[in-house]
Write a structure and sequence with these properties.
Blueprint: E1 2-6, E2 11-16, E3 21-26, H1 28-43, H2 50-61, E4 72-76, E5 109-112, H3 116-121, E6 134-138, H4 163-174, E7 177-180, H5 186-192, E8 198-202, E9 205-206, E10 216-219, E11 227-230, H6 231-234, E12 243-247, E13 254-257, E14 261-264, H7 265-272, E15 276-278, H8 286-301, H9 306-320, H10 329-332, E16 338-339, H11 357-384
Parallel strand pairs: 1-4, 4-5, 6-7, 6-8, 8-12, 12-15
Antiparallel strand pairs: 1-2, 2-3, 9-10, 10-11, 13-14, 15-16
Helix pairs in contact: 1-2, 4-8, 8-9
Length: about 375
């Protein structure tokens, strides 16, 4: 565990392992400067000098302790560190070479928590015996002829081309319930969400950095216009889900309150009872997230723990990326694992799309064998006559 503290004039990190606790004094000026540069890089979508910025921040907050770090690392951030994707920090100096760059995702598997006490409170006794039931939502946005979510604001007018495909694929992998288009309403979510082990929300979201309780997720509505689920609404829900996936923009961001932390959608779902969250740290790319989610649920289906499944999903995305721009951490590093990291049980309920070829192949074999026997018997009768 790496637990950070950023004060007014000091920066500390505590390294907690099974048998030791070590406290390191970081260079406050360097950390502050590197974090400011990182925040500016996020605003520029990590397109300008990101490698330089990412290596500088790595030198400040990871390099002093890395020799003692295990493969699997839990981060407890503070202040601006809540917006840092640690797996996208560069452990080598920037180079002019093209292709994939050396980031910490190659060395470590990261997860995040608000505090060590919060992490301990979310632990269970290992793999769930019962099958995990998934409920996915994917409203329709930006459809001028049949717009279920467009009246409230301009965000809802922005199309999401891949969110419904994402929900269908996730539902097929897990054997879950999928609500898309006009079915993906807030009232349906409130009705069904408390009975589901896994909630997957592929939608629009907006973080309010001035008033965190006004951050929201957008749902479809029975009338014209989106139905918004605000942070303050989520606080009132009872959602004992094993995992909530917030496949939308800025779901891990929000208002920073000293002494309380980030008031975000992710934090609200924890307050409502969720044991783990997959939120986003910034405005994520619809297509990239859809691809990563497909790989992520495949990993969960295979029995991987959540942090390892997400790491492998990101690496798979990078392996298959064809556009050099899509190699930027802005496209793949925004999703993180928070809370409980344990495995989920999808194996018995899963009906992945690419498995449908198996029964199809069996049917084809039966038809071929039947056809072969039929024609052989006809030839036999013909030869006797």
């Amino acid at each position: 565990v790496l637990s950070y503290f950023l004060g007014d004039e000091s920066a500390l990190v505590m390294l907690i392992s099974e048998d030791t606790v070590c406290l390191y004094d970081l260079d406050f000026e360097n950390v502050s400067g590197a974090l400011e540069a990182y925040s500016q890089s996020l605003k520029d979508k990590m397109s300008r000098d990101y490698e330089v910025v990412a290596h500088s921040l790595y030198q400040c907050i990871i390099q002093p302790v890395e020799i003692s770090l295990p493969y699997r690392v839990m981060i407890i951030p503070d202040g601006l560190l809540h917006s840092v994707a640690f797996d996208a920090l560069a452990y080598q100096e920037a180079s002019s070479t093209t292709g994939r760059k050396p980031f910490l995702i190659d060395r470590h598997c990261f997860s995040y928590n608000y505090s060590f006490a919060h992490f301990n409170a979310l632990q269970t006794n290992g793999i769930a015996d019962e099958q995990s039931q998934l409920l996915a939502f994917a409203p329709l946005f930006g459809d001028t002829e049949n717009d279920y979510a467009s009246a409230r604001d301009s965000l809802a007018n922005t199309p999401l081309k891949y969110n419904q495909e994402e929900a269908k694929v996730v539902g097929a992998i897990t054997g879950g319930i999928v609500c898309i288009g006009p079915e993906a309403t807030r009232s349906t979510f409130k009705k069904l969400s408390g009975e589901s082990d896994v909630l997957h929300l592929a939608t629009h979201a907006l973080a309010d950095n001035e008033s965190g309780e006004n951050s929201y997720l957008a749902f479809a509505s029975e009338q014209a216009g989106s139905d918004l689920l605000l942070v303050r609404d989520i606080y009132t829900l009872d959602l004992p889900a094993e995992m909530v996936v917030l496949s939308a923009c800025e779901t891990g961001s929000g208002e920073w309150k000293k002494g309380e932390g980030v008031i975000s959608l992710a934090r609200a779902f924890f307050y409502a009872g969720a044991r783990s969250l997959i939120p986003s740290l910034w405005n994520v790319n619809d297509k990239a997230v859809s691809d990563i989610m497909r790989f992520f649920y495949r990993g969960l289906e295979q029995g991987m723990e959540k942090d390892e499944a997400l790491r492998k999903a990101k690496l798979r995305y990078l392996e298959e990326a064809r556009d050099p721009q899509s190699l930027s951490p802005y496209y793949w590093a925004g999703l993180v694992v928070m809370g409980n990291r344990e495995t989920l049980n999808f194996s018995a309920t899963a009906l992945p799309i690419d498995r449908f070829y198996i029964p199809g192949l069996l049917v084809l074999c039966i038809l071929l064998i039947t056809g072969y026997l039929y024609f052989r018997s006809r030839r036999k009768r013909a030869s006797i006559q």
